[in-house]
Amino acid sequence: MNYNHTNFFDKYKDFATKLVVCNDLRSLFGTVDKLVNEICDYEYMVLYYYTPHSDRLIAVTTKGLTKEERFIAQKTAMQRAPGRCLRAKEIIYIKEADSEAYELQNKFVKPTLLNSRLYIPLINNNQVLGVYSLASTKVDNFSDEVINAISFITNIAAVIYKKIIDTRDLGRINKRLEEINRNFFSQKLQSIGQLAAGIAHEINTPLQYINDNLDFLEHSYEALSNFASSIYDLINDWETYNWSDARNIIKRNIKETDIDFFLSEIPVAISQSQDGILKISKIINTIKNFSQVGIKEQSFLNINRTLEDVVLITRNEWKKVADVNLILHNDLPVIYCYADEVNQVLLQFLLNSIDAIKEKIQIDKDYTFGKIEISTCFDDKYIVIQFVDDGIGIQEKHLDKIFDPFFTTKPPGKGTGQGLAVAHNVICSKLGGDIFVSSNYLKGTEFIIKLSFE
Amino acid sequence: MANVLFVDDEEFILLGLKRLVKSASDVIDAEFATSGKEALDKIATKNFDIIITDLYMPEIDGVKLLEFAKETQPNAIRIMMTGHFNSEIEKFKNGFAHIVLSKPVSYKMLLNTISDCLSKKEELLQQ
After folding, report:
1. How far is CA A176 from CA A51, A53, A425, A432, in A?
2. Is B19 in contact with A276 (Cβ distance < 8 A)?
3. B78-117 b/e with 16+ CB inside 10 Å = b?
4. With 90 as the cut, is the pLDDT of residue A268 above it?
5. Collapsing DSSP states into helix, strand and coil, what is residue A49?
6. How many CB pairs under 8 A join A and B?
7. pLDDT tens across A47-91, in order?
8. Which one, out of A148, A324, A360, B23, has a CA that is 20 to 30 A from the CA of A299?
9. What DSSP character marks residue A80?
10. B103: closest CA of chain A, how far (Å)
11. Interchain proximity A320–B57, CB inside 8 Å
């Protein structure tokens, strides 16, 4: 023990200087240990960290204890002196072994007897962060001066400790924000990937009949040109026929060529093909709207248009399993936002409804076709978007978890648990809106999204 | 003369085929169904040489339809026609369809396939 009254202030100054430069927990614990070692001898040390969340003391760092002893010390800490010290926010000093020590002695199976034991609460801003405990086999090992010096060290350590933890938490929050942003893009890529096959199918279907119709028109042209040349032949050879013969030949040719069939079918083939081309260009326009990844500027977005687009590009996903009914309020105000994000989120809600219906079809044999209703309306401040489906619904125990990142009830590889987490981040955090959910398991789900347009 | 059943839930596809097939009415006797259910009824009442169906249809899809056809009309050639990617349709091919065609299929290709089916019918049914 080299603690000395004469260099009292120098010593304290030295403690403080050495502690404040610590910027991580490892160096802080190391410095505390070193400094305390300078002023007293002890055989055992435990530094407990208090977790208010689970109301437990965790042995963060120990000295002189085996793994088993450390485990028992931590397990019994709340019932023993460390717990009392924590609750009372006061230093506890036991000069000589008492019954508790004997009791512990048995558990620890230690031949030596822990006579003096010291427990110092680590307090910052009236909040107990943990307990620092020392023990020695000697009776009354810690003098008042020593205890004062140690508590001086631990008080400073507590402040530094809190600072380190807060900085670390801030780092975590930033990391989390980065993660959410990254998730947005991975989620977006995932749903586009999921839709790509469906969109290809949606384009291939009109391509198929446009193709067939062009083949038909080619064939019609052949038939009609054959008919035309038979008329030319007739005109060129006019003298050889009388009017009645000519009329009969033309009549026969009309019948053989089936002119009436071509005359009625050609316009239909053309208009159906035009319709198909319109469908394809609409799909391509929608994909264009949805693939504006790089646009970082906010713009005015018409939610009704977005919903129509979303319904169109997902058509292949829902058309075999559900009807989608859009009830859109005509005068819906536009909202100022990143169109990219809102498109993605609304797409997600519809995909979720489709999945819910598919899931119910699998387990309920009386249910073969679902219903999805999407509606918009507004009041003086908010526009309201409502998604209602009669799919599988959400179990009550899951309701408060659905917006958690990585929470999913889908089998591994199917869902990433990102969809609603991203939706919540965009709607609630970024746009200051709100999402409400009500659901009946096996009956259906309703999501209400509120967005401010002011 | 080949009895052919065309099944597709896209009305315009069937209408397009109907128009086209008319020109081949001397070799193809065509029937059309706009749903899996309608097709089941037709398969239950009439024998076909070839059944050509879309894959994704509500309620009774192409796979279910061809399964039924395999049971009830084992001598019919089963053809799946779909707008989906090749990798995806491969898994439906095993056992259900003798031939898988990827949309869009040209009329010429369709006619060739039909005549191939008729000339190599025995070979295909062995599969």
Report:
1. 22, 20, 12, 19
2. no
3. bbbbbbbeeeebeebeeebbbbbbebbbebeebbebbeeb
4. yes
5. strand
6. 79
7. 998 888 778 898 888 888 888 888 888 888 888 889 999 999 999
8. A324
9. S
10. 6
11. yes
Asked if residue A32 lies in contact with residue A19, where contact means CB atoms within 8 angstroms, the answer is yes
Query: Into how many domains does chain B fold?
Result: 1
**Does B104 contact A211 at a Cβ distance shorter than 8 Å?**
yes
Residue with tokens 């080619």: A218
Q: For residue A400, what pLDDT band results from cuts at 50, 70 and 90?
A: confident
Is residue A127 pLDDT above 80, yes or no?
Answer: yes
- A98 band by pLDDT with thresholds 50, 70 and 90: low
Q: Min CA distance, B122 vs chain A (Å)?
A: 29
Predicted ipTM of the assembly: 0.80
Q: Which residues pair with B94 in a beta bridge?
A: none
Residue type, A339: A
Give the contacts of A337 (CB within 8 A, at least 6 positions apart): A298, A299, A301, A431, A451
Phi then psi for residue A368, to 5 deg, are: -115, -15
Residue partners of A243: CB distance under 8 A and separation at least 6: none
Find the CATH number of the domain harbouring B88.
Answer: 3.40.50.2300
Determine the residue of chain B that is closest to A265 in CA distance: B19
**pLDDT tens digits along A352-394:** 999 999 999 999 989 989 999 999 999 888 899 999 999 999 9
CATH code: domain A292-454 is 3.30.565.10
Q: What's the topology of domain A8-170?
A: Beta-Lactamase (3.30.450)
The single residue listed with the structure tokens 């926010």 is A89
How many Cα atoms sit within 13 Å of B86 on the Cβ side? 0
Give the residue from chain A lying closest to B23, CA to CA.
Answer: A219
Task: State the span(s) of chain A assigned CATH 3.30.450.40.
Answer: 8-170
The crossing angle, in degrees rounded to 10, of helices A144-236 and A303-313 is: 70
Tell which phi-psi region holds residue A451, choosing left (phi > 0), alpha (psi between -120 and 50) or beta: beta
Residue numbers of the domain that contains B117: 2-126
Cite the residue boundaries of each domain of chain A with CATH code 3.30.565.10.
Answer: 292-454
Return the percentage of chain A with pLDDT > 70, whole number: 87
Bridge partners, A401 (sequence order): none
